[in-house]
User: Fold these one by one.
Assistant:
Number 1:
Amino acid sequence: MLELIAASRTYDDGHPVHALKPTTLAIGNGEYVTITGPSGSGKSTLLNLLGLLDSPTNGGYRVSGDETAGMSAGHLGSLRGRLFGFVFQAFHLLPGRTALENVELGMLYGPHRRAERRARALRAIEKIGLAHRAHADPRTLSGGERQRIAIARAIAGTPRVLFCDEPTGNLDSANTATVLRLLRELNAEGLTVVVITHDPEVAVAGTRTLTVVDGHVEEA
Amino acid sequence: MRPADLVREALLSVTRFPGRSMLTALGTVLGAAAFVSTLGLVSTLGQQVSASFDVRRATEVLVQPQDQGADTGWQSEKSLQRLRELNGVRAAGPRVLLDERPTTRAIGVPVQGVRLMGVDPPALRVIGPALAEGRLFTEYDERNALRIVLLPRSVADQLGVTRTQAAVFIDNEAYTVAGIFDDVTRRPEALTAALVPFRTAGKLTSANPKRDVIIETAPGAAQQIAHQAPLALKPEAAEALRSIAPPDPKTLRREIEDNVTRSSLMVSLVTLVIGTVSIGNAATASIATRTAEIGLRRAVGGRPAHVFAQLLAETTVLGALGGAVGAFLGVCVTSAVSLWNGWTPVIDLRLALVASAVCAAAGLVAGLVPAARATRIQPVAALQR
């Protein structure tokens, strides 16, 4: 479903940095892929390309068979909103909005009307086991709860792929276990999961592990 | 994204941080408050000006000869009769102002120089002395040119006159004090002169008598009467007379209002420009702190156009709210000032709507540059923070 074809990413601020060397890679529906590697190895660059947050400098990237090179920012945005969900290390919950409103925000740019967005957001919060905190200010939630709310935001719009960038980086072991169990359950329901992590415990949770070293991607 | 969602998002962003929003919109709050309160106070004051003019000066006309010559025919009873028949004339009478005369209470007491003013009973009615004691002139006094005098309180005190029916000597001739008055409704120069019947004054010689006719008109008729009076008094040569009427209160009010309105609009405009710049600055600064949020919005499917529209909606909502709060403050200020001074506040509530609309437009303009900048933020920014 996701296919990188000799895709590379070079940043050029005076002298070129080859963050990701030419990579050919396919991720099928329903996979649970973990991406590991040292800091600065190119993991985030790989995730950005896969999540359509960035475009390859060379090569191609197909999503469900459609080549994404040359698509407008608007088109890429709507594709991203429809197919992908994102979970970040820093949660990125907006202050001044309840947990429920933050979850609804994930569907704001999609096709659903407000009532539908609310219903889906409530279902997603229920699914992650935080229905009782739906109207709480995120600042009053624990780190683990915040990340679960962020996961609810990512899945409320029923995406096909969930991208997680160090989802347990700010969590203690108990909360890490909760988040990992949640990701496993979502994957078991058919959601494709792609996780970047430093944590070996998280890395082994997937069904497939990719290692990135100096911009080279290798199957572990 | 639907327009309703856009507005809701903007309102959420603005209303969940009221303190920050109010500081950002302070310029528009002040601009709108200045706009509404100054225009409100102008209308209120205009109403006051008009009210005081209507009851006093606006009902007074003075007719003078172009050249103070020997011809006194225009002050004859026949001429005055024509004038009194004009529609809108309430009272009209002739007046003659003579030079200072040596005046004293008794022989041997120091002599004061007092101006004499000859008036007939209708002219006296126009002047409207507020008698402290005694009586005004009657037709009998006038017809018989009696030697009686009305003294203003200040002149009476100067002469040492303490009661009516006393005698004062003007040019060594004895006059009986008929009355003493404290104030006048019109012609304040009567407060420094001794008033005698018109015919009595006519018998006195003077090097330089000044003659005129004073008229009290119905409210609103002064301009019309001023136009007609010379013709009524001297049909054969109306141009030899000139009328002096107070400026039309409506015109005067409009002039005052126009002037103050122009100034207040300038002040409001300057404040509004400052408000626009302050919203623009605050919005530009807030983008730096909201990079992660904007990146997140892009990551979850927001297009650059969505980001642009949302920031524009936020600054517009800020401007509109600032305008509404400012307009409310303006109405409060106008009401409070009016209440304090005992005036009737005259507030056009449409001004408040105009202020809010103009401030909303200012907010929209202020948001253009920061919103355009925000569209350059890439979604990857959300991941990096």
Number 2:
Amino acid sequence: MERKIRVLTAKLGFDMHNRGMSVVNRALRDGGTEVVYIGNQFPEGIAETALQEDVDVIGISSLNSASSLELMERVMGIIKKKHLEDKLVIFGGIVLPDDVPKLKEMGVNEYFPPGSNVDSIVSYIKENVPQ
Amino acid sequence: MEKSNIAKGKERKEVFTTSSGIPIKRIYTPEDVADLDYNRDLGPSGEDPYTRGIYPTMYRGKLWTIRQFGGLNAAEATNDRYKLMYQMGVTGFAIAIDDASLIGFDPDSPEAEGEVGVGGVSVFSLKDMEDMFDGLPIDKISTAVIQAINTTCPHTAMYLALAENRGIDLRDVDGTTEGDPCSFGGCSDLKANPAPVRQLMRLCGDLVEWCAINAPKWHPVSFTSYNYREAGVNAYQEIGGLVASAVDLIEEVLSRDRGLTVDDFVPHYTFHLASHNDFFEEIAKMRAARRMWCKIMTERYDAKDPRTKMLRFHVQTSGSTLTYQQPINNAIRVAYQSLAAALGGVQSLHACSYDEALCIPTEEAVTLSIRTQQILQNESNVTNTIDPLAGSYYVESLTNEVEKRAMDFFHQIEDHGGWTKALELGWLRQQTEKEAIKYEEEIRTGKRRIVGVNCFQMEEDPSKITYFRPDPEIYKKQKARAEKLKEERDNDKVEETLNELRDADDSGENVMPAMMKAVKAYATLEEMTDVTVRRHFASGTKSIFSHLSRMIE
């Protein structure tokens, strides 16, 4: 049997707005992926778990535009240090429109703003997950 | 197409429902309210069962308080913002505290890196509170100290200590503490983010008990159904949960058997509801909530003091209805939601800002929110008479239906052992997620239409807004401030007061007297929450996060 795509999902830092995360977790499961949800975690915890769990995709959510870029920089720094660049990294939540290019520059593969159709997240993962 | 519908008597949809899924008829008639008994079900405002409002004169006597939730960067920047708001006519403030402080970490703590100034103002000692309210007449304003559950007691103690240091009698200090431990579990996944729920309930109970005796104008708890409404539950679940959570804290205080009756402390309870998109359902919800609360306080607790039976509430327009797309449209959503709150008989109101789906509001955005409320209060004349929608076949019928469904939800929670137990069991979280997923599914399928999101989208939004960005140096500055404070204060005194706090916490005594002393000695938030909260985590670790909570399906 074909191995399911494994997706690690986490809330970034202290952001407690988890409505979007619950909805996305459900859509990912319904879409046939295996979800490892670790709740709120610091950047280090997210990267460490991605390594331990051997996931294909890292999905991170935060609704705080004030901290999302800075904390994502820490996540991406660790991902590079640990040579996890083969993982697909997606970010959902709030980044100011002007900052979206910065998020992509640091190596985040895709950004899904609030209001994104959850199906588009699942199909993006299926189309772009490293083989 | 619609023209031919009219000719054929056809309707646009097979079923029309409220936002919560209550089916709505084409037209309402006297038959729908045939059982309505005016004196029993409505009555005049200011009288049992308070359906029409809690005061006899309502807005003819006093307009609702414009209470804007705000906080940014450090104390000084927030002080500037508050002064500006005060000049614009705001007399109620609600402190938006940053994430690091909400969780209970000082800025010089490694956990706080990247979280200082996020979502609000950094407040970690009495010093911050002093600077934040410098030059503001705290005897003339009312302040809501909005904190997360971990910091309920210390943040409140900081504000009250500030008042005492200014020579104001605590008996005259007006304001609210919002740290409702009950609202947390509905929003948060306790499996992923465990919390010592029982200890948090105890701390909240301590504050209720202490304020009843020492600060009788202070509202020590504001039951915040807003939080779980935003997390997912619908309108009738929101008020069913609201009542269940308030009942649970009544039981907590009564179980101590220290001589207080409901009439000693429940008059100080306040409530914080959401105002969401479905205009009439929200109004019906607010009316139903008042009636339901009065019934339960009368029937179950035999309350005598009318204030025990009055559901007084703050409303915040619903942040989760604001869209990232075409943000200017949010100003219109906020205006309708504010109008619903006014017609629902609110006591104080926060009107969200159009940019809140993106960032902390800018000065322009906050100004528009304040003016939105002032236009409503001064130009629309909706304040001329009380509960103007009473007697509407539709509104009365919907009020009954919302109350009936809310009561069912309340009983379901009771069947799970009450709010705290239902929260610990994960049942509340399940209900919240179920509704959030259903809502999203309706948006995905187009059953629920959101302008700019799943209909009337635009590639390029013609209106550009400016964004608020926090001070990039905030973490460094606040870290230095924390280090300086810890050098300059009398550390022996801090240690002595923290020991006293620990003893009170261990013995089961009320922690507030010791907390007030610790705050006045400039003990920090982290030092105090280490004692009252973090020691109580089952794991015994300092981390707020569980090591790993795997939920693989």
